[in-house]
């Protein structure tokens, strides 16, 4: 970030060189505007944040306790408030990212209205949300810097040089709210060319990291839905290539590609892979296809498809949809092959979509992947689709049962019941839940933990609480007690909603533009002043 003093000096020289034409321009005001707008384009953001991700990936390789995290945000304001909160509580943004969930774009940002996560929403809504998120994060920078500049003015007016120097130091060392975003491009919304075109839009909006999955574009399902269909590796590699070309074309050489495999829960494939010789990638993919051995051409019917699996002729199992079925129980083996192949063909990080949060299960697959790719690391979905309480209580139950403990006081299938909340089992399950991210980062190669759609759920929960009280007996007290009083006491900046929306920034700009004639909104009669 540029030095405040140097910016003023540069702009002073610029003004002097204009022979009085810029006499109305105050170099200090212009310097403030420059510092409040550090990132002038989305590509500036993408290049800056890609560098951060690369540094964080190297730091994780050296020390697995330095894993990173994010929450999915469906609106720019949500992303902004998240980063403001992180800076308030932790003092820095290191290791905290944003996640853009295709699920939430489909459910909340489509002009068609709420849609399932099946790539039916407008593809342009994805880069639009990226741009919106960074617009709000840049506004958070402007707001916080504006507050520092106002305090600097007060210190100068009071003649407090020590305070002035301290505030100038804070301005020069200001940490931006702009952080990396991992952006979901689904299965690319079409063929490799469509993937490339959308990727460029997403990168131009600011995305430094694109997450793509190995499902069929026109059959794409949410990772936690049934009926998922994967594609042969050659098709997926083409889309990884398309992403890399998009990054390189736009000058984001450090751009990060996350290759997601849905093979653990996908029992179907769109087509048989092309194989040129035994043991090649296509042959390995086709070896997972389910079917029955045949010994004679007389056994082949008109619509049958027959392939050679090693030395056997096999009539592959083909559904009425035209899709082909994989062998039962082959999911983990396919995941391992998917991940190794993706890393060897340009992907930087992996995403394994699982059906439960289980460190041992993830570690088992990652250990196998690392035999071929020692630096393999994951982005992992701490999904709200998991019943975390039940999963971890059952994991504790199973561990205790394996140790030979008496489990007669517990009913494994009913462990979600509140009657178990105060038990020793529930307490340990909560501890395992709390430790899941650090344990999985240490033991299972997870570099980045995210929750795909948490703010979808928090918005629903908080709105339900307010509606229940406000439209019930509590009336206005429901808002005052449940929202405003908490905002004031917990230091939530939105209590001054006019300021959060930019009124103080606007007032200062009016003074820059109009001088003493500026008509400001933030005077003594502004009710925002009630909040101190």
From TrEMBL:
Q: Which NCBIfam families match?
A: PRK06498.1
The segments labelled Disordered in the record are 1-23
Q: Which UniProt keywords apply?
A: Coiled coil, Lyase, Magnesium, Metal-binding
Biased composition range(s): Basic and acidic residues: 1-21
Q: Which residues form a coiled coil?
A: 138-165
Record-annotated active site? 222
Q: Which residues bind Mg(2+)?
A: 184
Mention one GO biological process in which this protein takes part, according to its record. Answer: carboxylic acid metabolic process
Q: Tell me the PANTHER family matching this sequence.
A: BIFUNCTIONAL GLYOXYLATE CYCLE PROTEIN (PTHR21631:SF3), ISOCITRATE LYASE/MALATE SYNTHASE (PTHR21631)
The cofactor named in the record is: Mg(2+)
Name recorded for this polypeptide: Isocitrate lyase
């Amino acid at each position: 970030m540029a030095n405040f003093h140097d910016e003023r000096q540069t702009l002073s020289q610029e003004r002097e060189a204009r022979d009085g034409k810029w006499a109305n321009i105050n170099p200090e005001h212009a310097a403030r505007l420059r510092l409040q707008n550090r990132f002038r384009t989305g590509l500036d953001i993408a290049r800056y944040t890609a560098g951060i991700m690369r540094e964080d990936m190297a730091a994780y390789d050296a020390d697995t306790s330095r894993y990173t995290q994010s929450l999915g945000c469906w609106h720019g304001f949500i992303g902004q408030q998240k980063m403001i909160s992180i800076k308030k509580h932790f003092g820095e943004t290191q290791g905290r990212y944003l996640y853009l969930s295709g699920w939430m774009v489909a459910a909340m940002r489509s002009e068609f209205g709420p849609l399932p996560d099946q790539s039916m929403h407008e593809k342009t809504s994805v880069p639009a949300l990226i741009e919106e998120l960074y617009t709000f994060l840049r506004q958070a920078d402007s707001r916080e810097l504006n507050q520092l500049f106002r305090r600097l003015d007060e210190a100068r007016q009071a003649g407090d040089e020590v305070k002035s120097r301290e505030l100038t130091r804070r301005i020069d060392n200001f940490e931006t709210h702009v952080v990396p975003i991992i952006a979901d491009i689904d299965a690319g919304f079409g063929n490799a060319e469509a993937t490339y075109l959308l990727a460029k839009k997403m990168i131009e909006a600011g995305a430094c990291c694109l997450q793509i999955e190995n499902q069929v574009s026109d059959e794409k399902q949410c990772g936690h839905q049934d009926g998922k269909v994967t594609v042969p590796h050659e098709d997926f590699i083409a889309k990884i290539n398309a992403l890399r070309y998009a990054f390189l074309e736009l000058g984001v050489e450090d751009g990060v590609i996350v290759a997601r495999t849905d093979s653990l829960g996908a029992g179907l494939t769109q087509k048989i892979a092309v194989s040129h010789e035994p043991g090649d990638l296509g042959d390995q993919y086709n070896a997972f296809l389910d079917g029955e051995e045949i010994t004679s051409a007389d056994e082949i019917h008109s619509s049958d498809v027959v392939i050679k699996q090693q030395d056997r002729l096999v009539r592959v199992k083909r559904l009425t949809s035209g899709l082909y079925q994989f062998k039962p129980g082959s999911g983990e083996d396919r995941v391992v092959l998917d991940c190794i192949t993706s890393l060897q063909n340009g992907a930087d990080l992996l995403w394994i979509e699982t059906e439960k949060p289980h460190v041992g299960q993830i570690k088992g697959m990652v250990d196998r992947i690392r035999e071929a790719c020692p630096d393999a690391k994951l982005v992992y979905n701490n999904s709200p689709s998991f019943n975390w309480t039940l999963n971890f209580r059952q994991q504790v139950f199973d561990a205790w049962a394996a140790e030979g403990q008496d489990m007669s006081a517990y009913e494994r299938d009913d462990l979600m019941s509140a009657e178990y909340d105060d038990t020793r089992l529930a307490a340990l399950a909560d501890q395992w839940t709390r430790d899941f991210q650090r344990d999985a980062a240490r033991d299972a190669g997870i570099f980045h933990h995210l929750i795909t759609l948490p703010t979808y759920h928090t918005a629903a929960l908080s709105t339900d609480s307010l509606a229940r009280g406000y439209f019930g007996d509590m009336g206005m007290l429901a808002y005052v007690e449940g929202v405003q009083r908490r905002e004031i006491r917990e230091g939530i900046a939105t209590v001054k909603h006019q300021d959060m929306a930019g009124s103080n920034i606007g007032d200062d700009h009016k003074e820059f533009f109009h001088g003493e004639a500026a008509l400001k909104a933030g005077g003594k009669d502004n009710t925002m002043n009630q909040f101190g």
